[in-house]
């Protein structure tokens, strides 16, 4: 990251871009807000990985794009087509199933101790197709 930052700064100096480090004055407060919220977002991800099981943390991380799209639709009045909503809910549902590794159906497993990995792979490949 330091090399990327250094290359970007050198490029901005060579191209004589004004306000290259702090950004234009009219959007500087938005950039600061974005940096602070981005920091706390990543901090929350690392905190969840530290205090939750990996599967719980991954489900929360995969839930982020769906909740961002819904929040954008509600708060910013962005368009949110039905097919995108269905795709988001479907992908979250399958990620939930895969990460938890539990039975993909209601009822008891025909196998002692749950489904075998080969059977799970077959069921998931049919569901994802």
Mean pLDDT: 78
Helix content: 55-70%
Shape: elongated
Oligomeric state of shown chains: single chain
Account of the protein in words:
The chain is mainly α. Helix content is 70%, strand content 0%. Helix 3 (54-75) packs antiparallel against helix 4 (82-100). The longest helix has 24 residues, at 28-51. It is elongated. The model has no long low-confidence stretch (mean pLDDT 78).
Task: Summarize this structure as a short list of keywords or feature phrases.
129 residues; mainly alpha
Please describe the topology of this protein.
Layout (H helix, E strand, L loop, with lengths): L1 H13 L13 H24 L2 H22 L6 H19 L16 H12 L1
Helix pairs in contact: 3-4
The gist of it:
With 129 residues, the protein is mainly alpha-helical. It has 5 helices and no strands.
């Amino acid at each position: 990251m330091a090399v990327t930052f250094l290359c970007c700064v050198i490029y901005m100096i060579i191209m004589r871009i004004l306000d290259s480090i702090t950004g234009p004055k009219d959007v500087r407060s938005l950039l600061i807000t974005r940096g602070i919220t981005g920091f706390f977002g990543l901090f929350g991800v690392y905190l969840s990985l530290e205090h939750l099981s990996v599967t719980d943390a991954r489900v929360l991380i995969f839930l982020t794009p769906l909740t961002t799209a819904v929040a954008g639709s509600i708060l910013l009045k962005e368009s949110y087509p039905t097919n995108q909503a269905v795709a988001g809910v479907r992908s979250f549902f399958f990620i939930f199933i895969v990460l938890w590794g539990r039975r993909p159906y209601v009822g008891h497993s025909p196998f002692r101790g749950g489904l075998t990995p080969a059977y799970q792979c077959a069921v998931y490949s049919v569901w994802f197709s």
